[in-house]
Specification:
elongated, Arc Repressor Mutant, subunit A, mainly alpha, 9 helices, 2 domains, single chain, about 0% strand, Rna Polymerase Sigma Factor, Chain: A
């Protein structure tokens, strides 16, 4: 990484092109969380690269290079959206507390098995491969992700689509690891619920083929 930074500071155009190639896709995904359209997101990314070139001398190495670049993008995107703060405080990610991650109706509410599933989640391994690979599934998941709060969307995009570590996301968003895990869990739960709703009618009946599921009886 030191060599890359030195090359950028020296004005190496090839080093800059390689940096853009390595990070362009994640920056565009991240910009889409905050921008009202892809066109605006692309403008945010362009402005980010200009800011990177202008500010590369200020990079001190305390964060990873992609975290530093992504933080610049988030600040630019939020400023363009009319928010003047220069950091990403917890207040930006409000509205995510207290909501159930799974519909409470899916659990037993009383009796010796209170809190246990009324019906176990579907086993998608029983679905035909062509159903699981269908473009509609990807469209369904993408549509749900686009409706998530900025906090949940940012976390699930970076963790599950870009492969970021929880530590990197916490540093980028200035949130605790506990908060990051809650956001990720809620985002994944919403995506799973949407996929269950879509795939439910396509589930083959139990015993009609495919691996069977076995569950131990719940413990009171």
């Amino acid at each position: 990484m030191t060599e890359d930074i030195d090359a950028l500071r020296a004005g190496d155009e090839q080093a800059f092109r390689e940096l853009v190639r390595a990070h362009q896709s994640v920056l565009l995904r991240l910009a889409m969380v905050y921008a009202p359209s892809r066109a605006v997101a692309e403008e945010v990314v362009q402005e980010t690269w200009i800011a990177v070139l202008r500010g590369v001398d200020t990079f001190d190495g305390r964060a990873s290079l992609r975290t530093w670049i992504s933080r610049i993008l988030v600040n630019i995107a939020r400023r363009r959206a009319g928010q003047e703060a220069q950091t990403v405080p917890l207040s930006v990610f409000g509205g995510d507390g207290g909501e159930p991650t799974v519909n409470p109706d899916r659990f037993q509410s009383r009796g010796p098995y209170a809190g246990h599933w009324v019906k176990f989640p579907d086993d998608w391994s029983r679905l035909p491969e062509e159903v699981l690979l269908a473009g509609e599934i990807r469209h369904t998941a993408t549509a749900v992700i686009e409706q998530l709060s900025p906090a949940q969307r940012t976390v699930i995009v970076l963790r599950d689509m870009e492969g970021w570590s929880s530590a990197e996301i916490c540093e980028l968003l200035d949130i605790s690891d506990v908060h990051q895990r809650v956001l990720l869990h809620r985002a994944r739960a919403k995506v799973r619920q949407a996929l269950e709703d879509y795939l439910g009618p396509r589930m083959p009946p139990e015993g009609s083929g495919g691996p069977a599921r076995e569950f131990a009886p719940p413990t009171p």
